[in-house]
Structure to design on (297 residues):
């Protein structure tokens, strides 16, 4: 746009009022300043916009054409300002979250409930997927936020810790009793037992595989399961020895429904948190990060 926006604003107000003195009162500027601005706009465009008379001013054909577009432009700006005020007043926004089924159920949902109550006008979209794919979507900026275990490699993402988790091998007491009865008390349960693990594409599985390799543990019979919820349920009915997250099965451990398996060394705890590209990417993201920080502190 070659002309100063203020010239168009003055032109627009004069055209609406049909009178320079009325427009001057509306804009709180002098009549000579308005006349000068109109003249500059006409000189810059190379056309006459108004026909002046003792009763005021009237738009020329060129002026009517310009007014049509100026009216549309200023209406759009007014609408934009109104929307911004509405967004600020009601905290309207859109938050796109990537999270695995397990972390969604046990970590995100309990925290999301209070956030929705505080910010009911923010639209929430949840991409339920593996943590590996969540990282990929974050890198492509297709989501605002990912709830994942802290990556072992540098990603260039911001990371805000939420909680620590501990992986444990668990079983029912009856499964272990039957295994020892069949194979003997000195049996290597990783060799003779049915070991339930998540599929190889899962980041938790990769973490457990690293632990097993480090401690020279090589399971002989592995049943791969797609979700941790299913793995826990299969373990609870006595299908085998599963690897799950202690914090998500604490109730079953406390009741004795499941029992932990002794290991040469406890599996190192992991940190679950919020990964994102920039904390200032959107107001909705800022609101969520602030809410989590307040509730977790």
């Amino acid at each position: 746009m070659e002309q100063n926006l203020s010239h168009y604003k003055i032109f627009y107000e004069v055209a609406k009022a049909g009178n320079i003195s009325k427009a001057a009162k509306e804009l709180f500027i002098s009549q000579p300043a308005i006349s000068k601005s109109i003249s500059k706009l006409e000189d810059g465009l190379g056309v006459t916009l108004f026909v002046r008379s003792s009763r005021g001013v009237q738009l020329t054909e060129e002026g009517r054409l310009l007014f049509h577009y100026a009216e549309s432009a200023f209406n759009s700006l007014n609408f934009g300002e109104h929307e911004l005020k509405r967004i600020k007043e009601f905290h309207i926004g859109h938050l796109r979250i990537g999270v695995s089924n397990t972390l969604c159920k046990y970590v995100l949902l309990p925290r999301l409930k209070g956030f929705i109550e505080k910010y009911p006008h923010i639209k929430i979209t949840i991409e339920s997927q593996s943590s590996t794919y969540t990282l990929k979507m974050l890198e492509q900026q297709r989501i605002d936020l990912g709830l994942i275990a802290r990556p072992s490699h540098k990603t260039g993402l911001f990371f805000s810790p939420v909680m620590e988790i501990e992986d444990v091998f668990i079983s029912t007491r009856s499964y272990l009793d039957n295994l020892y009865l069949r194979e003997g008390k000195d049996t290597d349960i990783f060799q003779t037992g049915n070991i339930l693990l998540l599929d190889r594409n899962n980041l938790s599985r990769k973490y457990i595989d690293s632990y097993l390799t480090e401690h020279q543990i090589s399971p002989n019979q592995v049943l791969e399961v797609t979700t941790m919820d299913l793995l826990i349920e299969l373990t609870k009915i006595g299908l085998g020895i599963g690897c799950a997250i202690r914090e998500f099965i604490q109730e079953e451990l406390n009741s004795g429904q499941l029992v932990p398996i002794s290991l040469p060394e406890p599996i190192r705890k992991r940190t679950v948190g919020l990964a994102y590209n920039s904390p200032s990417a959107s107001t909705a993201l800022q609101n969520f990060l602030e809410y989590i920080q307040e509730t977790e502190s």
